[in-house]
Design goal:
The chain is mainly alpha-helical. The chain has one domain. The protein contains 3 helices and no strands. Helix 2 packs across helix 3. The longest helix has 19 residues.
Length: 83
């Protein structure tokens, strides 16, 4: 994947992470989506919280953090708050 390959320029890697974030969100893999959203850095516009993808990732952040501390590496596929 482009995001993980250090041979690509950082800007390309961030753009790839932004695309991957949306793909994983559609697939219901919200933990992965959150990871890629964070990897996209400033390209992930948190100001647009009315956008369903942005809102989902922002809402999943605190839950994901709490879940990671209480589970042993299992990924969650909990439905997003907008469903």
């Amino acid at each position: 994947m482009v995001y993980e390959n250090k041979l690509y320029p950082e800007e390309c890697r961030k753009q790839a992470a932004l695309v991957a974030r949306k793909v994983y969100c559609h697939l219901g893999s919200y933990e992965d989506s959150l990871t890629y959203a964070l990897g996209a850095g400033e390209l992930f516009n948190t100001e647009d919280s009315k956008n369903q993808y942005v809102g989902t990732i922002i809402a999943m952040g605190p839950r994901s953090s709490a879940r990671r501390s209480s589970t042993s590496g299992r990924r969650s596929t909990t439905a997003p708050p907008w469903r």
